[in-house]
Specification:
By secondary structure, the protein is of the alpha/beta class. Helix content is 42%, strand content 17%. Helix 2 runs parallel beside helix 3 (56-72). The mean pLDDT is 95. The protein binds ligand LCLJCK34, the ligand Cc1nc(C(=O)O)sc1CCOP(=O)(O)O and magnesium ion.
């Protein structure tokens, strides 16, 4: 992402996106309604539905039901990518990547009262995210991940700490390759939230993994 990309951003809202909690805590990113339901029942309060590359017509029903579940459990449910459907069905929030920022109608998302989370992977992407004034900023990928092909190298904890220190007032989310045993060193960087996929969905016992992640991220003194 170059400086010129800043000038390619579509029209930005006049005010920041609605705030969210500074510490969003454990933030599972999952791709089915059943994962959403079982994790909300297990006590998760921040969660994302991430379905990739399907036509809107294929996912609208699932997205609508996920949003209803989020409301029923009074949880912060973010929809990845499908911002039009998230606006249509009044999700709590939307998560967008850098490329999405160039094409999404940010004013429409803002006007509809949805929170916005934005992905970043380096200094330039962070500068662009700050220009958008989203509700939270995600920083990734911290460690190697099997879940998604990444074009860049992992940023590691030293970069994570440096990035978090440049945005002390922002809610931040660390993502990418974060296993249970790595949680303490990630939290030590000052992030308010840790997003995980495989630490839960590939755990031998997802219930136990979720309980342990909730304890480490939300219940331990820090
Ligand atoms: C919390 C969180 N952080 C980063 C991402 C990655 O989003 P994006 O860059 O849009 O890539 P895809 O997830 O769409 O492949 C995320 N989803 N959630
Ligand atoms: C969806 C996603 N986005 C990333 C980013 O860095 O933007 S890393 C990632 C995958 C995270 O999965 P896991 O916890 O299994 O490593
Ligand atoms: Mg995306």
């Amino acid at each position: 992402m170059t400086d010129t990309t800043l000038t390619h951003l579509p029209a930005l809202p006049d005010t920041p996106f609605l705030p969210t909690e500074k510490k969003l805590g454990l933030y599972p990113v999952v791709d089915t309604l059943s994962w959403i339901e079982r994790l909300l029942e297990a006590g998760v309060t921040t969660i994302q539905l991430r379905i990739k590359d399907q036509p809107d017509t294929e996912v609208e029903e699932i997205i609508q039901q996920a949003i209803e579940l989020g409301k029923r459990f009074n949880a912060r449910l973010f929809i990845n990518d499908y911002w039009r459907l998230a606006v249509k069905h009044q999700a709590y929030g939307v998560h967008l990547g850098q490329e999405d920022l160039l094409t999404a109608d940010l004013k429409a998302i803002h006007q509809a009262g949805l929170r916005l989370g934005v992905s970043t992977h380096d200094d330039e992407e962070l500068a662009l995210a700050i220009a958008v004034r989203p509700s939270y900023i995600a920083l990734g990928h911290i460690f190697p991940t099997q879940t998604k092909d990444m074009p860049s190298a992992p940023q590691g904890v030293a970069e994570l700490k440096r990035h978090v220190a440049t945005i002390p007032d922002y809610p931040t989310v660390a993502i990418g390759g974060i296993s249970i045993d790595r949680v303490p060193e990630v939290l030590a960087c000052g992030v308010g939230s840790i997003a995980v996929v495989s630490a839960i969905t590939k755990a031998p016992d997802w219930r136990q993994a979720t309980a342990e992640l909730l304890r480490l991220i939300e219940h331990e003194e820090r």
